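RECORD TYPE: inverse folding
INPUT: structure tokens
STRUCTURE:
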């Protein structure tokens, strides 16, 4: 996927692009790039917009030297606690979705969703949870409600297959024929202090995956906080409302108890919380590391805007979907104003 700049010298306007990116050949035609914090910098780099030195190594003609493209990647690090359900407990969502012993969707679940709007298919999987402040935990395990939340808990009515929650969703569950009953709490550092990562292309092949570097736990404060979060997730699971369903713990596992063991488990299993932002960050036009201006226009290029989570300069302390929707609403207002002006 590549944006084609027919008049690279004068940067008049964008006329066309391959695949899904097609702009009008009218004078005011524009492309609105909305491929996210991984896809948008990848497409810009393939199109000649990015760090000049890096793109030249790949033989890509430079359209605009914007070294900030692909930098400033931020994400929430996540780990999890997952337990089997006791015999006789209600079925997990993931178990109820399948015909036992197969990978086929259970027609009962499908019928409930189609006819009644109920059942496991009405849930996105992690639609319950909460935010707390965990830098200090009182002796009775109460937390500080008056302080800014720094941990998010996601409750999933399903047993994870691996300690990587995203792997369970994207890979493992597809081939799992007898998914066990259980439940999971994902622990997320909502305001990580670790340094930013990067997204860089390694090839001019648009189908080749870019190299993504997410430096989770480069700041020990994040790792220490994650250890506390894992301990508190266990505390929540041991409360009467969940304890009556709670069987053996698989992740981290009953053999992992000390803070050092939990630190090693967190380092080994940390994964994305699906909150990637920042790789085409918004900033002033004279900021060499900014990629888009306050009109969402790519700096140094006419007829191209970016409208997705990649423009966020900093990571919100919660899930980024609402912030991304707010960006989209603002972009709609900007585009309407540009048409009427």
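DESIGNED SEQUENCE:
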């Amino acid at each position: 996927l590549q944006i084609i700049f027919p008049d690279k010298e004068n940067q008049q306007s964008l006329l066309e692009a391959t695949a899904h990116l097609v702009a009008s050949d009218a004078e005011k035609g524009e492309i609105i790039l909305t491929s996210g914090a991984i896809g948008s910098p990848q497409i810009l780099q393939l199109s000649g917009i990015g760090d000049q030195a890096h793109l030249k190594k790949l033989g890509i003609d430079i359209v605009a030297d914007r070294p900030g493209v692909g930098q400033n990647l931020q994400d929430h690090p996540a780990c999890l606690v997952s337990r089997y359900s006791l015999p006789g407990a209600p079925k997990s969502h993931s178990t109820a979705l399948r015909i036992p012993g197969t990978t086929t969707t259970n027609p009962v679940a499908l019928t409930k969703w189609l006819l009644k709007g109920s059942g496991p298919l009405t849930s996105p999987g992690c639609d319950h949870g909460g935010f707390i402040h965990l830098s200090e935990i009182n002796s009775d395990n109460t937390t500080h409600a008056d302080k800014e939340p720094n941990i998010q808990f996601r409750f999933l009515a399903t047993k994870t297959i691996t300690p990587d929650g995203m792997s369970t969703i994207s890979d493992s569950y597809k081939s799992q024929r007898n998914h066990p009953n259980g439940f999971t709490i994902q622990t997320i550092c909502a305001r990580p202090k670790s340094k930013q990562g990067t997204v860089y292309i390694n090839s001019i092949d648009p189908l080749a995956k870019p190299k993504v570097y997410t430096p989770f736990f480069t700041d020990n404060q994040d790792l220490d906080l994650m250890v506390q979060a894992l301990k508190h997730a266990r505390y929540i699971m041991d409360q009467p409302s969940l304890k009556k369903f709670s069987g053996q713990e698989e992740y981290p596992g009953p053999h992992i108890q000390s803070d050092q063991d939990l630190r090693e488990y967190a380092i080994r299993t940390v994964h994305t919380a699906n909150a990637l932002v920042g790789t085409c960050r918004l900033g002033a036009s004279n900021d060499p590391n900014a990629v888009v201006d306050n009109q969402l226009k790519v700096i140094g290029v006419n007829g191209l805007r970016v409208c997705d989570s990649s423009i966020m300069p900093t990571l919100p302390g919660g899930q980024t979907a609402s912030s991304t929707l707010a960006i989209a609403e603002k972009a709609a207002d900007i585009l309407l104003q540009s048409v009427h002006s």
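NOTES: The chain has a mean pLDDT of 87.
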